[in-house]
């Protein structure tokens, strides 16, 4: 497969992943699927926008760059028809690195949120939401979940959405790493399909 075609496939894959991350982050603003009475009732890590910014908006740029690599005009650059394609592949490495950093940020935020646990109402505190799980102990001891009385099934909601963000971020990092390798090959060897009608 041509390096340009491979990059296009990566771009096509990254776009829906970015949309999924944005949607998950937005859903986290509704703890337990319910509208929060005030912002203090929402888990703090949600406001770090790991899914909206890190794996979402930031990932859109490399995805669009990867999508456009195959159609990049590479003719006549410095008298060499392939150098434009090589430069485009090199620039894709930089965008892949930016995408990996954004996804990495989302992964870190998700890990912190999963370990920290959700902010919820407890049997002790029914008025203000608090963090009943300080060190991730609820992950291995499900009986502790009864400490959260709401809103809704907040623990499942919290874990499901942040786990989706974590898994999606890891996939995005992997895809960006593939593009770094693909970009290096394209920079050194050029597009194996050639350009300017020579494919």
Automatic annotation (TrEMBL):
Keywords of this entry: Membrane, Transmembrane, Transmembrane helix
Subcellular location: Membrane
Domain of life per record: Eukaryota
A matching Pfam family: L6_membrane
Entries under InterPro entries matching the protein: L6_membrane (IPR008661)
This protein's GO CC annotations: membrane
Spans through the membrane: 12-30, 46-67, 87-108, 154-178
Family affiliation: Belongs to the L6 tetraspanin family.
Name under which the protein is recorded: Transmembrane 4 L six family member 4
Gene field: tm4sf4
């Amino acid at each position: 497969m041509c390096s340009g075609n491979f990059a296009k496939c990566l771009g096509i894959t990254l776009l829906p992943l970015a949309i999924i991350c944005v949607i998950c982050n937005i859903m986290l603003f509704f703890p337990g699927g319910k509208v929060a009475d005030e912002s203090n009732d929402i888990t703090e890590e949600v406001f770090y926008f790991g899914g909206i910014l890190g794996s979402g908006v930031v990932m859109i740029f490399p995805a669009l760059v990867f999508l456009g690599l195959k159609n990049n005009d590479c003719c006549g650059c410095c008298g060499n028809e392939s150098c434009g394609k090589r430069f485009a592949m090199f620039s894709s490495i930089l965008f892949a690195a930016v995408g990996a950093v954004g996804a990495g940020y989302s992964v870190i935020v998700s890990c912190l949120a999963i370990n920290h646990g959700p902010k919820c109402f407890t049997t002790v505190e029914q008025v203000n939401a608090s963090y009943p799980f300080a060190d991730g102990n609820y992950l291995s001891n499900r009986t502790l979940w009864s400490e959260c009385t709401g809103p809704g099934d907040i623990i499942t909601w919290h874990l499901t959405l942040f786990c989706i963000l974590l898994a999606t971020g890891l996939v995005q990092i992997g895809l960006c790493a593939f593009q770094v390798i693909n970009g290096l090959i394209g920079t050194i060897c050029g597009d194996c399909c050639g350009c300017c009608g020579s494919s």
